[in-house]
Design goal:
about 200 residues; alpha/beta; Rossmann fold; 2 domains; 4-stranded parallel β-sheet; Recombinase_CS; Resolvase-like_N_sf; DNA binding; DNA integration
Length: about 200
């Protein structure tokens, strides 16, 4: 008996998987057979994906909404596709791209067309991931130029910090004594003093 499974992935916990879940419901996939990850598609080290993979047999069909839900790494998508269809013997249906349905056209021409489309879409998925990374890097660089600071906001130094920093720098007290007087960890006091003295 053929077992249908669905795989749904969103990149972050904030993203909404409803569109993919709706597509699975319309394809007739039972809720108990839908596996969902809220993780990046950069690799296949995802808990729900691994559980789903263990379930697949030669009598299984895996449904995904689009190829980028499977992953975003061109080489790994190709390897995973071949592992599922050739080693596991399961079929794959990409709902947004009907030509990528391994249940159809089991002849040489059908396989050739599917492979060609898969390679193209896998390339596009990875290219989009590269573009996202580049846009992020450009956005961060532009924000830094404008003076935006990233990370946790720094705690203000205590009122006596500058005095203790001068005392330590002039040798009138030890680093440990100055840090203790400011109620600061030794390493924090030291690095902030070095910044002030620059």
């Amino acid at each position: 008996m053929i077992k249908n499974y669905g795989y749904v992935r969103v990149s972050t916990k904030e993203q909404n998987p409803d569109r993919q879940l709706k597509a699975m419901a319309e394809a007739g996939i039972e809720c108990k057979n839908i596996f969902m990850d809220k993780e990046s598609g950069k690799d296949f080290d995802r808990p729900a994906y691994k559980r789903m993979l263990r379930k697949l047999t030669k009598d299984s069909v895996l449904f995904i909404k689009s190829i980028d839900r499977l992953g975003r790494n061109y080489r790994e998508i190709m390897e995973e596709w071949r592992y599922i269809t050739q080693i596991k013997g399961a079929d794959i249906v990409v709902l947004a791209m009907p030509v990528l349905d391994t249940r159809r056209h089991k002849n040489l021409m059908g396989t050739f067309i599917s492979d060609l489309v898969l390679q193209l879409l896998s390339f596009v998925a990875e290219n989009e991931r590269c573009n996202i990374r580049q846009r992020q890097a450009e956005g961060i660089a532009a924000a830094k130029k404008k003076g935006v600071r990233f990370g946790r906001p720094q705690k203000p130094v205590p009122d006596n910090f500058h005095l203790q920093c001068k005392l330590w720098h002039s040798g009138q007290c030890t680093l440990a004594q100055a840090a203790a007087a400011c109620q600061m960890p030794l390493s924090t006091f030291y690095s902030k003093c070095r910044d002030v003295m620059k």
